[in-house]
Each structure stands twice: as C-alpha cells, then as structure tokens.
Design a protein that fits this description.
This protein is mainly alpha-helical and about 900 residues long. The protein is about 70% helix and about 0% strand. The chain has three domains: about 220 residues, Arp2/3 complex 21 kDa subunit ARPC3, CATH 1.10.1760; about 210 residues, Hypothetical protein af1432 (Orthogonal Bundle), CATH 1.10.3210.10; about 400 residues, MFS general substrate transporter like domains (Growth Hormone, Chain: A), CATH 1.20.1250.20.
C-alpha cells in the first residue's frame, strides 16, 4: 500500500475525512443506540465470530475477499448503533500488522469505512415496521443494499484517488455483476443468523451456518491454490523448453509476459488475458518433436530441416488440444507463425482468419526475438528499435491493432492505417458513452423523452379507467395504439431510411409536444374521455416512426462491435427514466387525484427538450434516396438472418401484452385488499415503478455480457420473465407479487436488447430503419391480439389468470429459443477462423491438418531471428 506521505493531497484529505467520519459514527452509534449490559455476551459472541471470519478471507489471485459481511449484518440487526460500531472497529483484524504489512492509514481507513457503511444503515432500518413476516426480509434487504453500496463506493473512491483514475472507471473495472451478486447473497445470510439468535439454541446452530460459509471459503481457496500450482507448472514447462534450446533462454516466459501486456493494452477480458499468457508459455512446446541437432544448429538450416522445424506449431497444438483445460489455447499455438498477408505457416491463414490470440503471440514472439540477447548474434535491437522494426511490417506480417498496442506500451503514437480490423476488446458501458459523443447526446434525448412517456400513459389509462371502470376500454386504448403503429409501419415503414433521420425526428418530436399541450383542453374534465382514443392513435403513428429511427441510428453513432452494449445502454436509460416518470406520475396523482392535465403538459415539455438535444447531433443516418418508403416488411423478411428473431419477437409480443390490462386491474384489486391507503391509480403507478426498476436492473445485467445478439440470450430473458410471471399468478400477497414482478421485468430487457441487437447486426445499413420498423409493426400487430386476449381473460377470470397464461407461454417460447440458440464466438479465435474451421468439419480447438505443411517463403517467419542483421526476420523456428 502506498505510504501516506506519497499520496496526493486529495487522497490524503479523503482518507483523513473517512477516518474521522468513522470515529464519529462510532460515537454516534453509542449515543443513539448503546449496547445494554444484558447484551454484552451477544456482542462478545458476534465479535468472536466476526474476528474468526476476518482471519479467514477468500484469497484471489490479486487481493482477497472478506467473509465478515454476514456477521456485520447480523450485528447491525441485533445490536444496531454501538454494537456494530464496536465490531467494525475492534473485531476485523485480518492478520496484517500496521506499520509492517499494511500502512497505518490503510489500517484505520478500512475500519472507519466499515463503521461508516454499517452503523448508519443499522440505525436507519430500525424505522422499518411492517406487520407480518416481511419485516425481517425487508430490513435485511435494505441493510444489505445500503451497506454493500457504501462499502464499494468508499473503497472505489480511495482507489481512484490513489491510482489517479475516475470513480466510474474504478467501479466498472473492479466490480462485476458476479461480485455484486455474490457479496449481496453472502451478506443476506446475516438475516438468517439474526433469526437463529432469537432463541438460545440458535447460538449453538448459528456456527453451523457460518461453518458452511467457511467450507465454501475453503473450497474457493483450494481452487485458487490449484490455479497457482497450474501457473507454476506452466512456468516450469516453459523454462524446461527454453533450457533445451541454448539460443532462447527464458524466451517463452518473456513472450508470455509481453503477450499478456498486449492483451491488457487491447482491453481484452481477464480470462482472455490469462489464456494469452498460457499460450505464450507453451507456444514453443512443439520443439519437443524437433531433433537437437536441428534445434541447436549454429548455422543456417537446410530446406529439409526447415520443413521439420515448421512442424513444431502443429506438434505443440496437437499436444495441447488433448488437455481439456487448455483446448482453447491450441489454435493460438498452432497459428502463431501465420502472417497477416498469408505468407506464414503452418496453414497460410490470412488477415482476420488468423485467430486473434495468435496475432498477439506473433508480435510478442518477434519482439522478444529481435530485442533479446542471443549467443549467435553480437548485437540486439533496443526496445524502441524493435517496435519500429515491427511497425514497418504492420498490415504485412502483423495485425496493425496489435502493433499499435505494442507502440502504446512503449509510449509511441498509433499508426495511420486504412481499413483497420476490429478488436474483440472488452467493451464497457462507460467506454461506449465516453468514446461516442453523438451517442451520448442520443442517450440524453431518449432519457428525457422517456421520462415523460409514463406521464401520458398514466394520465390516459387512469382517465379512461376512472370514467368507465372497465378493463376492456383500457385494452382498447392499447389496441388503438397498436393499430396506429401497424398502419404507419405498413404504409411508411421505409421512411426512416429514405429521409434524413435527424430532421425527421426533430419535426415529429415537436409535433407530439403540440398535440399533448392541446389534449387537456380537448378532453375537459374527463367527460370527453373518448377523444383520448384518436389522440393515442395519432401519437402512436408518430412514435412508429420516431422509435425505429432512434434504434436504426445507433449503429451510425457507435462502432460495429459496440452496438450490443449501446442497445443495452438505451434500454437502461429508457427504463430508468420510465421508473422516475412513473414515480413522478404517482406523486402528482397523490397530491392532485384529478389533475391529469399536469401530466400531459409535462410530457409535452420533455418532447420539446428532446428535440432541442437532437439539433446538436450532426447526423442520425438515413437519407438513402434508393430506399422505397413502402414494402419494409417484405425487405425485412428477405434478410434470412433476421427471420428467426422477427418470429421470436412477434411471438413474445403476443404474450407479454397480456399483462397490460391485467396489471391495471391487479393494481385496483390490490388497493382494495391492502392495508396501505392507496388508490388504484397510485397502486398502478407503484407496480409500474417496480416493473421499471426491474427492467433497469435487467438492462445493467445484459450490458455486462459480451455476445449479446444471440438466440440463447433471448431465450434466457424470456425464461426469466415467464417463470416469475407465473409466480405472480400463484399468490395474492402484495409483497410477493412485487418481488415476482420485479424479477420478471428484469428478464424483459435481456430478451429485447438481444433481439434488437441481432436484427441490427443482420441488417444492411441502407435497410436498418425498415427492419426496425418491421419489428415494431410486427410487435404491435401481435400486441393487438395479446392485449385483446389479456383484456378478455382479465374481465372473465381475473388478472392472475392472465399472468398464468403469460408465464406458461413464455417458458415454452424460451425453451425453443434456447434450443435454437447458437454458441458465441471465442474472442481469441475470431469469427472468421471459427467459420473456416466449421467449414472444414471440425471445431475451433481442433487441428487443421490440411494447412500443416503450407510453409512461408524461403523459411522467413515472424519467429526467432538467426542472422547478423536483426532487421531481417530470418527465423530458425
């Protein structure tokens, strides 16, 4: 850890501030809720357990994860305030001695951070009072979310100050979805410990629960030890290989290190970087099959000897492919002597067909060769000379992206290369927003517009239902919107391709704003509620153009490899704004139950502001004069790759809208059963808020995936939504319905984003608007039937029956999608290589025997140099 004196002034100020605040939390906890003398033994019991846990963290390859969270949660629930403050400061020693193995400031900071993260939430959750069995789960959930969030944010802040990085990048780079879920699940068990300690026998049983946690810790630690042993074994194997060749001492170890650094510079995932390092350690394994007299020959090799030497990549790859844990590495080893122009060996692969990991190994191997010491060479290049030498062969021997990564590592500017190939780098949400200013503006406009959409939806549906008390009229409102969308996409589906989208969207957004401003005047005091039907029809016609135009604009604002992430960002922002919008709508109706006109005016303002933001975006694409305005559905169906996703999207669109009238009816039904004094409109807004938050969480989950546009991801989202929609139909309990609705909603964006991404990736740039308009039209066509069925079932059998049908249907559809799903592309192999391998009738990890003897020209390779002129890559490997 960095000494305190070496920290920057902001870092020092922040660290001291947190330590002071942690001490204040200790004092505040004892003042507001001290530990009663009768509870001293409880405090001692929990303190001993916490200290044991602190001494047994889960070790990772870098750092460790503490398992004290469940006991701190249990302490906060059982002894809030002073009790948890005492444990946080005095019972979390992890074996690191301050001043020796950890600096004093870090020692104090860790304890102050825990006190800050746990004391205040422990006091706050005591104010949660519910009758029945839901009080403990709700308290525990709020406590866990608050404590874990504070813990990560406080830690990420100090890391960002110490490392001089931004808070967001620190969080995104170090905290993944798996980590969050694992920590939250582990912490939630603190509520179980609290429950056990309510009886005397619980003090005997509680260690058994914690023993289970320690057993898991032991298994994880053992797995980490096995990983370390594997890495050490690979390093020994590399040393043994290098020792056999007197010209390449420690060459494989250095290649593994350089390849790993290149992978990190190219922003590959952690797993991919580990595989690259493994491949670097074993890239010359095939030399075992080369005779010593050839391997150590002091002079040039004959053509016959070169043929033997050129077999070593295949020999090594064949050996590696037999190891189940290393099979993915085999193609990298087999093709690390291929060249970008196709003149390498053993298969003569060219360009993107060469596995991406092999291209990294090629540069790492060559760089170490021309810059490392050799017994047969009097001089070696300096690192900068080596980089420049390799740079001269970019786009001929080497992938220019990998060469640029090598240049950036050495502080040199990237090369100017036309038609640069894609890099399968790890794409984060933050990167998508930072690197594409036009897309960031699009997101801002969509977010503001989406903020107002729930206002109009709540205003229109509540007005109709309040005037009629008939869910069939609510269903009619949805059907009218669907009919407007169908009519518009059928007649003018190609408009978003034919006209420039920027001007089209701006004009339509302003038109929508004007109509909404006039709506309160037209409908009066709900006596003319029937006018809402044609207004909804008109607004849906406008939306049928604006929505596909926005979706089709995404690929024109971000690189091809970022489309899936960008779609996930759009979904997340849309749902977050919708959640806020439904909350605002509920609050307004709570204060002014009949003032729906306020909602219409507010939505009009959001459309006008969105139009102003669109003005600042240079282009949204479109403007293809050859694109016909009509016939969008036929052109979309002619795109073979889009067909299955259009079918799945249409079927899902039939099932999901069954819940629309059912949800509103369910809200009014729950408002009559619940002890909470809320009206039906407010309950509906509350359930929509829960649903929107679930969709937002689902959008965050899918943004962490790599291969988004696949049928398997579509199926996974449908399965999640289907199972928990069925749960809604089983239990009338308000809390359980809210939880099930939340989880079911999380599956919605997983399915939708994957479906949209697949369609955009399958579409030609000139027809993206048509395909998205066709999807929009098909979805709304299916919605007409789905909403109608939902209205009839809700009216005849109740809302739970509608949710039951929805759940069963989505589960069946999900099973089909998962079965039809394709596997994702290994980023270290690449789509072109896997397609070539499949065409040969094998898998990406199997050998390519037909290319084993396709050697390079005159034995020139990108491997080891054995010549007095280091600039000539005349290789002996």
């Amino acid at each position: 850890m960095t000494p305190f004196k070496s920290l920057s002034r902001p870092a020092q100020t922040y660290a001291v501030g947190v330590i002071a605040f942690g001490l204040a939390m200790f004092a505040l906890g004892w003042i507001l809720d001290p530990v009663h003398p009768d509870s001293a033994l409880k405090l001692l019991y929990l303190g001993v357990g916490t200290q044991i846990a602190a001494l047994r963290p889960i070790p990772w390859r870098s750092g460790h994860q503490s398992v004290i969270d469940p006991l701190l949660i249990a302490t906060g629930l059982l002894l809030p305030g002073g009790g948890v403050a005492t444990i946080a400061w005095l019972a979390v020693f992890d074996g690191r001695v301050p001043g020796r193995t950890i600096t004093w400031w870090a020692f104090l900071f860790n304890r102050a951070m825990l006190a800050t993260a746990y004391v205040f939430p422990s006091l706050a959750v005591q104010s949660i009072h519910l009758q029945g069995r839901w009080e403990l789960p709700l308290r525990t959930l709020v406590f866990v979310v608050s404590a874990v969030s504070l813990n990560y944010i406080l830690t990420a802040l100090v890391m960002s100050y110490v490392n001089r990085t931004s808070l967001l990048s620190t969080l995104f780079d170090n905290v993944g979805v798996t980590t969050l879920i694992g920590t939250a699940a582990l912490s939630f068990s603190g509520g179980i410990i609290w429950l056990l300690l309510q009886s005397d026998v619980g003090y005997i049983m509680a260690p058994g629960l914690f023993g289970f946690v320690l057993a898991v810790r032991g298994n994880v630690a053992d797995a980490q030890r096995q990983t370390l042993l594997k890495d050490q074994t690979l390093e020994l194997a590399a040393q043994a290989l290098d020792a056999r060749d007197r010209y390449t001492e420690s060459h494989s170890i250095r290649v593994a290190d350089i390849a790993g650094r290149l992978g990190e510079q190219l922003e590959l995932g952690d797993r991919e970087v580990d595989l690259i390092r493994t491949a670097g350690s074993l890239h010359d394994l095939g030399k075992i099959g080369v005779r010593d007299d050839i391997l150590n020959k002091p002079g040039p090799l004959s053509e016959e000897e070169w043929e033997i030497m050129r077999r070593h990549p295949d020999i090594g790859a064949d050996m590696i492919a037999q190891h189940s844990a290393l099979a993915e590495v085999a193609p990298l080893v087999r093709h690390h002597h291929e060249r970008w122009d196709g003149s390498g060996y053993p298969a003569g692969l060219k360009g993107n067909v060469i596995p991406f990991g092999a291209r990294i190994l090629s540069v790492a191997d060559s760089f170490d060769t021309i810059t490392g010491a050799r017994l047969y060479r009097k001089t070696a290049m300096t690192p900068i000379e080596g980089v420049e030498d390799i740079s001269r062969r970019a786009s001929h021997w080497y992938d220019p992206n990998v060469v640029d990564a090598l240049r950036e590592i050495h502080g040199l500017k990237p090369l100017e290369v036309a038609d640069r190939p894609d890099v399968p780098r790890r794409i984060t949400t933050l990167r998508v927003l930072r690197s594409n200013s036009g897309f960031a503006s699009l997101i801002a406009a969509i977010g503001i517009s989406s903020l107002g959409d729930p206002l109009t939806q709540v205003a229109t549906l509540v007005s109709i239902y309040a005037a009629t008390r008939d869910p069939r009229y609510v269903a009619l409102a949805f059907i009218v919107q669907a009919v407007g969308t169908i009519a518009m996409t059928s007649v003018l589906g190609g408009l978003t391709d034919r006209l420039p989208r920027r001007g089209l969207v701006i004009g339509l957004e302003l038109l929508r704003a004007g109509v909404l401003l006039a709506t309160p005047i037209l409908i009066g005091d709900r006596s003319r509620w029937g006018l809402l039907i044609p207004i909804l029809f008109f607004l849906s016609c406008v939306n049928a153009i604006v929505q596909p135009a926005r979706q089709a604009a995404v690929p024109s604002l971000v690189p091809a490899g970022q489309v899936g992430k960008a779609n996930a960002v759009v979904a997340a922002v849309t749902m977050l704004s919708s959640a806020v919008g439904f909350g605002v709508a509920g609050a307004i109706l709570g204060l002014f139950p009949r003032a729906t006109s306020i909602l219409f005016v507010a939505d009009a303002a959001t459309f006008a502001l969105a139009a102003a933001i669109f003005v600042g975006i240079p282009s949204l694409g479109g403007g293809s004069t050859a694109a016909p305005i009509s016939g969008a559905l036929r052109r979309s169906w002619d795109t073979v790759a889009a067909r299955p996703h259009l079918v799945i999207g249409t079927l899902a669109a039939f099932l999901i809208p069954i819940s629309y009238p059912a949800l509103l009816s369910l809200a009014y039904q729950l408002s009559q059963q619940s002890r909470v004094p809320l009206m039906g409109g407010q309950f509906y807004s509350l359930l929509e808020l829960v649903s929107s938050v679930g969709i937002f969480i689902g959008s965050l989950l899918i943004s962490r995936l790599t291969s988004i546009g696949t049928m398997r991801i579509v199926g996974a989202g449908l399965l999640l939504t289907g199972v928990f929609s069925f749960v809604v139909s089983l239990n009338p309990d308000v809390a359980l319905i809210a939880v099930a609705l939340f989880i079911a909603s999380a599956g919605n964006p997983i399915y939708a984003v994957a479906n949209q991404t697949a369609l955009i990736e399958a579409a030609h740039p000139a027809s993206r608007g048509s395909i998205m308009a066709s999807r929009f039209g098909l979805v709304q066509t299916a919605s007409v039937i789905g909403v109608g069925v939902g209205g009839v079932i809700t009216n005849q059998f109740g809302p739970t029956a509608a949710y039951g049908l929805l759940g069963v249907g989505l589960v069946i559809l999900a099973m089909y999608a998962i079965a039809a799903g394709r596997s994702s592309i290994n980023p270290l192999h690449g789509a072109a290589y896997e397609a070539r391998t499949l065409a040969k009738g094998g898998t990406a990890s199997e050998q390519l025997d037909d290319g084993a003897m396709h050697g390079g020209v005159n034995g020139q390779t990108d491997g080891e140099t054995k010549t007095a002129e280091p600039g000539l890559h005349q290789a002996k490997t």
